[in-house]
Each structure stands twice: as C-alpha cells, then as structure tokens.
Design goal:
Length: 149
C-alpha cells in the first residue's frame, strides 16, 4: 500500500514537471505559434462569453472562463528568452524586460477569470463585471506587452 502511494506521488511529480517544461522541448516556431494560438483562443472565447452573458446563459459561459484561465497559466511558460523575435510575434521586448510584471499579469488574468465565473452568479451588471475581470486584463497586457496591429 505504501509502495503504491509512493509510485502515485512519483507519477504526479513526473506529469506536473513534464507539463511545466513542455514549452522547453518545442522549437522557437512552435512556442511562438503556440502562444499566439492560445491568445487567439482566449479572445475568441472572451467574445463567446460576452454573447452568452448577454443572453443570460451563465452556465454555458463558465467552461469558457475556465479554459481561458488555464491558457493564461500555460502562457507563463511560452515566453523563454529565445522567442523574442521571429514568426510574426507581436510580443514586445517589455515582456522580457519586465518579466515579473508580465507573469503577474498573466496570473492575475487567470485568477480573474475564476473570479468572473463566481461573480456572474450575483452580479447586477454583467457587462461591468466582464470589463473589470476580463477585458481590463486584455487592455493592460496589450498596452504594454503587445505590438500595435
């Protein structure tokens, strides 16, 4: 029994480390394209959330919020030093110059999506709570860390 628990704990550690370092095993192109795809997915899901909440389809919006939150956490590993340029990245050097600030913003955006999923249950103004907990994070990141397009 104790041996089985040790094996399970070891497997959990291995799986968590492999997901943490998955971006490191990818090529620069795969990393840049991967982060662009996650940001794009987040934007598409955010638009869907806005539509669902406007229609009062709160329960349908929650899984999208969870997915966005998970993507923001994954994105923490998608900005290694060797991915500053190339493959039409729109990431500004400020990401690497202010890495702690950028990472904190990604974590805040992730946390805020979970807060949004809870806040929509009781919010009087769904549009306002979306702006505070979803769109404001997008704006904060774009204004400092993304090239204008």
């Amino acid at each position: 029994m104790i041996q089985n628990i040790k094996i399970i704990k070891a497997l959990i550690i291995v799986f968590s480390l492999s997901s943490t370092f998955s971006a490191n095993a990818q090529s620069v192109e795969e990393i840049i394209k991967g982060r662009k795809a996650m940001f794009s997915e987040n934007y598409q899901n955010a638009k869907k959330i806005a539509i669902l909440l406007k229609s009062k389809k709160i329960e349908e919006a929650k899984p999208l919020m969870k997915k966005i939150s998970e993507n923001y956490k994954k994105l923490l590993d998608y900005f290694p030093e060797n991915t500053k340029e190339g493959f039409k990245t729109e990431a500004l050097p400020s990401i690497w110059e202010s890495k702690d600030e950028f990472n904190a913003l990604m974590q805040k955006a992730s946390d805020d999506m979970i807060k949004l999923a809870k806040a929509i249950e009781t919010a009087d103004d769904l549009k306002k709570v979306q702006k505070e907990l979803m769109w404001s994070n997008c704006s904060a990141c774009h204004s400092k860390f993304r090239a204008p397009h």
